[in-house]
Amino acid sequence: MAIELGFLNDRIILKADWFNNISSNMLVNAPSPSQTGFTTFTTNLQAEVQNSGWEFDLTTINLNRNSKLQWRTNFNLSLLENKLKAFPDLDKSAYAQRLKIGLPVNNPRYPLNAEWSQIYEGINPETGLPIFTDLNGDGLINNNDRTYIGSTIPSTFGGLGNVLSYKGFELDIFFQFSQQSTTNWMFNYFYPGQLSNPVNDVAGNYWRQPGDVTKYPRLWSGAATNTTTNLLSSVYPLSSAALTDLMYVRLKNLSLSYSLPTELISKAKINRAVIYVRGQNLLTWTSEKIYKDPELIQLRGGGVMLKTWTAG
């Protein structure tokens, strides 16, 4: 369902869309005994996935003076929700530990890529070990304490663009933004002390002696195997400590162009000629400054979106 409204002779145009899409007979990779020669096979499951949400688009003509000075703004916003609507015999399937049907009472959603793990509470200042919520109260931290900790599907994202034109010049600026939870640099792989390169934030911010209040736990080489080291190597990199609430705004595109006057190029039998310079991924503002790039935070070893300049 959608509505489109125009005001002041369409100098302000507002569009709002609501969508609700249900997909069935899902194509998935199902596990197979390795003796067959393959660990998975492609098949169809009689599951239903629901994607719904709102999309808004606002366009305004701020200035339009005799086609000499013009200024146009566009803003778009998307609010998305994803959930598993139906899955016959889910509790008997290979996805029983990963998926839940429907929306929970106290959480916004159970999306397809929901993360299920232990809830991280902080670092014990006396031992330097991470603390997790003991959900069943048995005094142990194990798989029985796993619960829904979040989803990496962006819940809110959009963009803001402005186009200014004056005579033959045109300046086009576009920002994109996103709000989501995302797995960070340590997810399912790193723990403090492992032979790898962590982010710079770890240096000087890990536990050393009793009484230290730090962001990261004690370092550990991985040489021993016991309950203590299991918390560091197995639980910590998979817990909610490996999820980051991330908000970022990026100057995605910047373009400056000049259209040569018609009287200048008509003699060369050219209809239109433009001189331009364009930039992409130029600046980023983020709530988590320790990561190189908020869009690629889930990639092992970081990486960044290429910053590029082109001219022609």
Outline the structure in words.
The chain is 4% helix and 47% strand. The protein has 312 residues and is mostly beta strands. The strands form three sheets. A nine-stranded antiparallel sheet has the order 1-2-3-4-9-10-11-12-13, with no helix packed on it. The protein has a two-stranded antiparallel sheet with strand order 5-8. It is extended, with a radius of gyration of 26 Å.
Any chance you could write out the topology, listing elements then pairs?
Elements lengths: L1 E6 L4 E20 L8 E26 L3 E18 L27 E4 L2 E4 L6 E3 L14 E5 L4 E11 L2 E15 L43 H9 L7 E17 L2 H4 L8 E13 L21 E4 L1
Antiparallel strand pairs: 1-2, 2-3, 3-4, 4-9, 5-8, 6-7, 9-10, 10-11, 11-12, 12-13
List keywords for this structure.
312 residues; 9-stranded antiparallel beta sheet; 2 helices; extended
Overall morphology = extended
How many strand segments?
13
Mean pLDDT: 85
Specify the structural class: mainly beta
Please mark out the parts with pLDDT under 50 across 5 or more consecutive residues, or reply none: none
Tell me the major beta sheet.
9 strands, antiparallel
Sheet-strand content, in percent, reads over 45%
Number of helices: 2
Q: Termini distance?
A: 42 Å
Q: Strand order, biggest sheet?
A: 1-2-3-4-9-10-11-12-13
Q: Which range best describes the helical content: under 10%, 10-25%, 25-40%, 40-55%, 55-70% or over 70%?
A: under 10%
Please trace the helix and strand order, writing H or E for each element.
Answer: EEEEEEEEEEHEHEE
What would you report as the Rg, rounded to the nearest angstrom? 26 Å
